[in-house]
Amino acid sequence: MRWARFVQQMVVVCLAVATCGCAAFRGGPAQDVDLGIPGKLPPDRAAFAEALARYGAGISQEWNRDGEAASSNFLRAAELDPDNEELQFRVALGLVRDQRSAEAQDLMERLARRKPNSERAQVWTAFVMRLLGQPEAALAYYDRAIRVAPAEPLPYLEKAALLARMDRAEEAIALLEQGLRRARGTEDIARMLAQLHVRRAAAMRDRTDAARAAERALRVLEPAAARGPRDEALLLQLAILNKLAGRYEAALEAAEQMEALRPADTYWRRRHVTALFGREDAGAAALAMQTLVDRQPDNPGRLLTLGHLQEQAGDSEAAEAAYRRARALAPDDPAPALRLGLLLTGLRRVDEAAAVFREALAAHPRDTRLLELLAYLEIGRDQPAAALDYFDRAQTLFQTGEATPLVPHFTVSHALAALQAGRADDAAQRLKDALAREPQFLDIFARVLLREPDMNRRALGVSALRRLSELDADNPSVFVYLGLVASYAQRYEESIAAFARAERLAREQEVEEDILTPAFYFWYGAANERKGQIDEAARLFLRCIEMDPPPGRTQDYNAWVDAHNYLAYMWAERGMELEKGLDLVNRALAIAPDNAAYIDTRGWIYFMQGRYVEAREDIERAIALMPDDATLTDHMGDVYEKLGVIEEAIDWWSRSFVIDPSNTAVAEKLERNGVDLAPLRAEAERRKTERPAPGASDLLDPALLDETPDIELED
User: Fold this and answer.
1) Within a 10 A sphere around the Cβ of 163, how many other Cβ atoms?
2) pLDDT of 642-678, one tens digit each?
3) Sign of torsion, CA 353 359 363 368?
4) Which residue, 578, 583, 495, 475, is CA-closest to 540?
């Protein structure tokens, strides 16, 4: 305590001196420091005072990045006050940092010899030995600490952690079990012991062996856990061990205790049940939960857990019944309605789900979870005005800080709802708000637009991004995505202008590495190709190919490989640079030999070279990999026409037309050969109606249904 008080005072003084530039504490060898100690002091007081001054000088010199002088003063301070454990440890750590291992080891070994009855001196010496890569020496010092202070938990914990890292888990377990019997305050020991037992049991391939190991562990742990407070980490380990032992009721009761420690907002998700019981356990766990429910039939929380387990086991009907019972028992609790509505959504009973949420919202008008879920449902039902109302109400509550969205991309969804309602300016403003928090949201927004089949909505997306580019005119990323979406909306001139603006801004702001990536040049080149600017497209594709990114940069690497294929196909379609194109596509195929598009490109190059047999072989292989592609089947028809097998060619063109009846070029080939297109159009329409329309459940993030925490074992 004496040292700590003096050090606190000296640190303040030294920092003040360092800040104002006092020369006495600015670097230089330790012997040149003016200690400023007036008069005479008794030898022990003088040594202490000098040690304190040296320590303060060292702090100041570290502050001023004079490591050599600081180390000299720290060492001298340690010599003057050799019994000060904190100081010795502090100096040893500095020596380790400076790679003066022998001095650090000598300092701590001397401390351990001077203070043989200090548990702290032995533990700190062990710690330094670990840092120096001497685990066996560290274990010996931990043993000394345990002999000196057998009731202190720290040496058991530190030694067990080191043993575990040395793959000596059995010794670590035995040591911790000893600590449970001898130490005081054993909560941390019980927690670590549980983690080690879980690791050992979970690693066993034989379930019977794992169950026996878990049973043995529980016999040791449960009495210890009963003596102290049960925190979430310990309860989780006990729940896992009970599950491994086949004691599902005990595991579920531990999960209940964990849920009780969680904030109320997470109660409806039953996250620990999801973490504990996978599909292989869900059936047995549901039976155990039914037993617990029978003991407390009026407990809505247990009914929620029962429903959740029945969902995992695939028994949706039973889960629905459990949620409805819970809802009837707790009409003022929104949790059963949330679970029931999500279950019905997953079953595509969207109208029923919306009714459940609306009824719950009438009782809880400020519950943002209900508002948000209703907003997503209304988007799925193509009711943008209703969706916007729910989004707006939820957003107002989020701004007060009362709650946070269920999913991180709430603002992006809000923008998409505005877009769906035809309010491009509102969508742009929402997106701007989203970008202020997370730039990645722009990528999410663009990806949704690229999957949008309705060209009118794509055009609205372009309008929103165009407006966003006016609101955020210096952001090159906005123009990149405007260029990409405009290209997909077939507005190639606007797309090319946006890419050009992005390139200019990136160079002006010196962010080329972030913006002018291989993916950027691929998209830019594709827009030029679609516009018919072949020379410029080739220049941009070659720019992409020259960049040669590493495979770890997935998006850029994929764009780089695709650029080889795109350029080769672009040339092949026009009968240009066929040999160069063949070399490019072969390089792409060397990386992705089973890519159907790449195989078709090579087949089409062979076709343009008059190598029809080789073309047929490649295109047949491509179709086997991607049988419902209109372009591949069209190509196969062209190949058979060149081979003189016109009936086969007509069959392939017909197949292509059914897949894509908007393709006028294929229609002309069929009509030229006397084929009636009406039956083919009817077949195309029939197939279109057979494909299921996307449901509202497709719009809900899976995290809403199950937010599973990672089960991690602490070191």
Assistant:
1) 22
2) 999 999 999 999 999 999 999 999 999 999 999 999 9
3) positive
4) 495
